[in-house]
Structures are given as structure tokens and as C-alpha cells.
From TrEMBL:
Top-level taxon: Bacteria
NCBIfam families: PseI
Designated name of the protein: Pseudaminic acid synthase
PANTHER family attached to this UniProt entry: N-ACETYLNEURAMINATE SYNTHASE, PSEUDAMINIC ACID SYNTHASE
Database matches in InterPro entries: AFP_Neu5c_C_sf (IPR036732), Aldolase_TIM (IPR013785), PseI-like (IPR051690), PseI/NeuA/B-like_N (IPR013132), Pseudaminic_synth_PseI (IPR020030), SAF (IPR013974), SAF_AFP_Neu5Ac (IPR006190), SAF_PseI/NeuA/NeuB (IPR057736)
Residue ranges of domain AFP-like in the record: 297-355
Length: 356
């Protein structure tokens, strides 16, 4: 089956056949400090990732302050259990006045800066900063009016599909296209924080590609980089991971975030995975040809005179190649040499009589 055509994001080709597009997600890992946010941007740039992503909302644009049970995180949640939604979003949000210096720093460092908007006022802010693309968060995949508003900007969209059914994904993609967007990447995602590798279900990557015919990536909330590397081997073209300066510093997202050196390893190893997944080929590659000479073959291992018989004492299967195949030893054993042959000579039929 033909792979989807790549899309272009700020000059980067994103899709099959191209280097994985790695996004470092800042989210709430700024821990309330613009200086830390800028430090994170520098670390993401140093890692070799191509993009940095923010989240553009306020507590008031996401929810209301209420202590009623629906406005609290489930008490069993490992990170945020029992917290009031408003307080959590107030702590994690990125102040809007930070966006301009963060976008500027990212561009200075060669990164593609963009964000997830959560309401029309966020889109307005991001448009004022000339964001090159948009991300739709998993929970917003069902907010079709928001998707249509983003699509109307004409910018590429990266849509995360955590929790979504195939029908909901199809509705979101239809809304994006109806709104005017044709440059779309869909991210497989397990919307758990952190997520277990047991729940990653990475075969959704080729399944989604086959179902929707667009580039597929992964929004990965599992610990470490193994799941992301495996996703690239299965065809993921985009990877998004939360990044922090140090997990030990704490913060709302720190437990499932990569530290800078881990992000650098992710960039390195997913690039290797993408280059390694090539169509099958059998027989020696160009790189293997030098080692091909090290295959075993039959060699004369002791000086012989004319008329001497072939024995295990004067002919053996050794490295390198060049002589008769090792399996021919039973055939040539007992045949006689037609001339003297020096030790270290590759055995050929020209050295032997037709019979013992």
C-alpha cells in the first residue's frame, strides 16, 4: 500500500521517508517561571528536536471554579488525584504574556514553536505570533467548533486522538477539512498521565495510517523512550514528549516527562529506527561486502607436494573466503594434488586430480 504523502511544517517535511519530527512539550513544566520555560526551550533545541510546543489557555477558559465532584480529578489518579480542576489549570497554565518571548527564543534557536489552543481567544493570540501550525489536544478532539476555527487559519494541524473512537477521529478530520485544512497529522495517543507501555497499543499506528491515509505520529506519555522508538519502527512520523529540566524539581507533568539528555537520546534513537526500517532485501549489502570476504572456505593449511592426498591435516575450512565451499570437504577428501601447493593457498579444482 502506498504511504501517505508528507506535509510541510515551517519548511520541515513531515511524513514517511523523512526524519521523525520530534516535538518537545513544555506544558506545565515551566513550574511558574518564565526563566525556566526559556531554559527548557534551550534544552529542547540542544537535543536536536525540531519543534517545541506550548499550551495556550487560562483556568477560566477551560473550566469554572467549583468544588463539586465533576470539577475534581478522580481521587485514584496517581498524580493529580482529588485536585480541583481550576487549581490544577491555574498552576499549569502558561501566562499569555510569556508567549511572545518563548516564541522568539524558540525561533532564535532554530525550533518550530507552536501551541495547543483551547478557545478562540487562544487562536487569536497564536495568530498574532504567526504560529506555523496548531495542535489539537486529545480532550479537544470532540470540540468540532474549535477544530473548524483552527482550520480556518489555513495552518497545518496536528490532532491527538487519545480516548477517541474511529468515528470521533473521522468526525474531527472531516471538521478540519471542511474548515479548510488539508495538511493534517494524526497522533496515536494514550491519554493517561503517566501511561503504561501495556496500554500503548502501537499497532494503532499502521491501522490509523491505513484507515485515514495521512501521516501518523505518537503523543507518548509513557516513561522513557522505548515506546517512541518502537512507534517509529511501525511508521510513526511525529513524536511528542513532555520535557522537564529535572524530574526531581517536581511539577504537574514532571513524572512522565523526559530530561534533556533523554530527549537527545530519543532524537538519536528514533532517527536510527526510521533509517533502519527499509524494504526487505536479501544477499549482501554494500556495507556487508567487506565482511563477505571473511566467510569460511577450504584452504591448504600445510605445504603439499604433487601427488599428496587431500586430508584433514593439509586442508581445512577456515576464514577467509576464496576457496571451495566448506561442504565440499567430503568430496575432495582423498583426491590428490596435481602439483605442489603452498600453505595459505585457497583450494580450487585446478589443484586436484579427478580421482584419488
Amino acid at each position: 500500500m502506498q504511504r501517505p504523502r508528507p506535509i510541510t511544517i515551517a519548511g520541515h517535511q513531515v511524513g514517511p521517508g523523512h526524519r521523525p519530527f520530534v516535538i518537545g512539550e513544555v506544558s506545565g513544566n515551566h513550574n511558574g517561571s518564565l526563566d525556566r520555560a526559556l531554559q527548557l526551550i534551550d534544552a529542547i533545541a540542544d537535543s536536536g528536536a525540531q519543534a517545541v510546543k506550548f499550551q495556550t489557555y487560562t483556568a477560566d477558559t477551560l473550566t469554572i471554579r467549583s468544588d463539586e465532584p465533576p470539577f475534581r480529578v478522580d481521587a485514584e489518579h496517581g498524580l493529580w488525584g482529588g485536585r480541583q480542576l481550576y487549581d490544577l489549570y491555574e498552576e499549569a497554565h502558561t501566562p499569555w504574556e510569556w508567549h511572545e518571548p518563548m516564541f522568539a527564543r524558540a525561533r532564535e534557536r532554530g525550533l518550530v514553536p507552536f501551541s495547543s489552543p483551547f478557545d478562540p481567544t487562544a487562536i487569536e493570540l497564536l495568530e498574532s505570533l504567526d504560529t506555523p501550525c496548531y495542535k489539537i489536544a486529545s480532550a479537544e478532539l470532540v470540540d468540532l467548533p474549535l477544530i473548524r476555527s483552527v482550520a480556518a487559519t489555513g495552518k497545518p494541524m496536528i490532532i491527538s486522538s487519545g480516548m477517541a473512537t474511529l468515528g470521533e477521529i473521522d468526525a474531527a478530520l472531516t471538521a478540519a477539512r471542511e474548515g479548510g485544512c488539508e495538511e493534517i497529522v494524526l497522533l496515536a495517543c494514550t491519554a493517561a498521565y503517566p501511561a503504561s507501555p501495556d496500554d500503548a497499543r502501537l499497532l494503532s499506528v499502521p491501522t490509523l495510517e491505513q484507515a485515514f491515509g495521512i501521516p501518523i505520529g505518537l503523543s507518548d506519555h509513557t516513561p522513557g523512550i522505548g515506546v517512541s522508538v518502537a512507534a517509529v519502527a511501525l511508521g510513526a512520523c511525529v513524536l511528542e514528549k513532555h520535557v522537564t529540566v529535572r524530574r526531581a524539581d517536581g511539577g504537574v507533568d514532571s513524572d512522565f516527562s523526559l530530561e534533556p539528555e533523554e530527549l537527545a537520546a530519543l532524537v538519536r534513537e528514533t532517527d536510527a529506527a526510521q533509517r533502519a526500517v527499509m524494504p526487505p532485501r536479501f544477499g549482501p549489502t554494500d556495507a556487508e561486502k567487506a565482511v563477505l570476504a571473511l566467510r569460511r572456505s577450504l584452504y591448504v593449511v600445510a605445504d603439499v607436494a604433487e601427488g599428496d592426498p587431500v586430508t584433514s591435516a593439509n586442508v581445512r575450512s577456515i576464514r577467509p573466503s576464496g576457496g571451495l565451499a566448506p561442504d565440499m570437504m567430503s568430496t575432495v577428501s582423498g583426491l590428490r594434488f596435481v602439483r605442489a601447493v603452498k600453505r595459505g593457498t585457497a583450494l580450487s579444482w585446478d589443484h586436484l586430480s579427478a580421482r584419488a
